[in-house]
Amino acid sequence: MTLLALIPARGGSKDIPRKNILPFCGKPLLQWSIDAALAANCVDQVIVSTDDPVIAALATECGAEVPFMRPPELATDSAPGIGVVLHALEQLPSVSDLLLLQPTSPLRNSADIENIIALRSRENTQSAVSLTPSTKHPAWMYSLDPKKQMSPLIPTRE
After folding, report:
1. Would you call 139 exposed, middle or buried from its count of C-beta atoms within 10 A (0-12, 13-18, 19+)?
2. Cβ distance 89 to 98 under 8 Å?
3. Residues 110-129: pLDDT tens digits?
């Protein structure tokens, strides 16, 4: 089994421009995921999928590999995340197992990675996802529509 840690990091974030290379607690946001993956004993290869040459250079400098650039159609706001995963697997056909690490989760560490892989193995499942319990009831939550207007996650009756 070859476990690939895939970190998707596109350059065109609209909410926080260039967020993946901005500093967070002393190092670029992207570097937190790269460092955690490199330190995890279960990870065989760390790849960053990006469309941005600056992100690619930073990823390489931090110890990850960037063996291909992501095509523009997979670097839009509306591109589904699975497209990035499938593209990476097409480029790296020898990979038998994949761990998707979003760079916007910088508090994840190597022990978290090792624990989820161990859990998946112990439970003999094909996949696993990490979740964090919400501290608020969904009735208190809001979502943003495409026009950046807030609306209740659970509509109220009138």
Report:
1. exposed
2. yes
3. 999 999 999 999 999 998 88
Q: Show the tokens assigned to 13.
A: 């974030």
- Per-residue pLDDT tens for 24-83? 999 999 999 999 999 999 999 999 999 999 999 999 999 999 999 999 999 988 888 899
Strand positions, DSSP E, the chain:
3-8, 23-24, 27-28, 45-49, 97-100, 142-144, 150-152
CA distance 141 to 108: 24
CB-based contact 103:33 (threshold 8 Å): yes
